Amino acid sequence: MDETLKECFKGLKDNSIHIKYFRSDSAAYQQSVAEEAEKNCTYIYIRIDDSQSLRDAIKDIPQTEWKPAIINNKKAEMADTPFFPFNGKKAYRAVVKRRKRKDKQFDVFTQSPYAYYAIMANHETAEATNLYVTEFYNKRGDIQKLRQIVERILGLRILNNYPFYLKKIPAHTFMCFTKNDSTYHKPSDELKTLDFVNMSRLVKGLLPGIEAIVEGVETPKN
């Protein structure tokens, strides 16, 4: 994963683009990835894998430090603590959320009746309260949902170039039909079902935009 990130960050840097916030699930909870992200971004937010070091850090949080919070319309408690991941000496900030377990059983590892969720961050500014860090991190899920909604609305998955879209390879689609077209890619898609007038208008409208590409003057970019 870190090699992929290096290529991504290089491409961004080559285009003078700086990433202020890096958010990732626990797939990025690796020393090499965290270091690469921190080197290229201002702030990083990474979900922490369950580990003995995390449990020890949570145990060291005084009970008086846990403060009530409402997250996703549900009651929780929050606190933060210095955290030294990957058996290293570099300290990050672990922002921890806990909720009472529904079964009310004590966790065998933490010896408490709570379920824990932690985010590793290097954000220490005044605005970066525990609630801010958690809510900002959770917005990464909103972006994923938005992408799914856009894909569904546009019907992208039924297109031949959808695999290229997933790999962010330029492969544009111009459609003369809607996602509700019942004949698309079916034997019933006969000559008589084609709207030649609309197709002609579309092609003529595209010509000014693609002539430079066809002639090799310009190259498609992401």
Shape annotation:
elongated
Overall number of structural domains: 2
Order of helices and strands: HEHEHEEEEHHH
Residue stretches low in confidence (pLDDT < 50, at least 5 long) are none
The helicity comes to 25-40%
Q: What is the average per-residue confidence, as pLDDT, rounded to a whole number? A: 81
The main sheet orders its strands as: 1-2-6-5-4-3
- Please report which band the strand proportion falls in: under 5%, 5-15%, 15-25%, 25-35%, 35-45% or over 45%: 15-25%
Number of strands: 6
- In angstroms, what is the radius of gyration? 25 Å
Helical/strand content category: alpha+beta
Distance between the termini: 21 Å
Could you walk me through the main structural features you see in this protein, from its secondary elements to its overall organization?
The protein is α+β, with helices and mostly antiparallel strands. It folds into 2 domains: 2-138, no CATH class; 155-214, no CATH class. It is 36% helix and 20% strand. The protein contains 6 helices and 6 strands; from the N terminus they run H-E-H-E-H-E-E-E-E-H-H-H. The protein has helices spanning 2-14, 31-40, 52-59, 130-154, 162-166, 196-214; strands at 19-24, 41-47, 67-71, 74-83, 92-100, 114-121. It has a 6-stranded mixed β-sheet, sandwiched between helices. A hairpin with an 8-residue loop joins strand 4 (74-83) and strand 5 (92-100). Helix 1 packs parallel to helix 2. The model has no long low-confidence stretch (mean pLDDT 81).
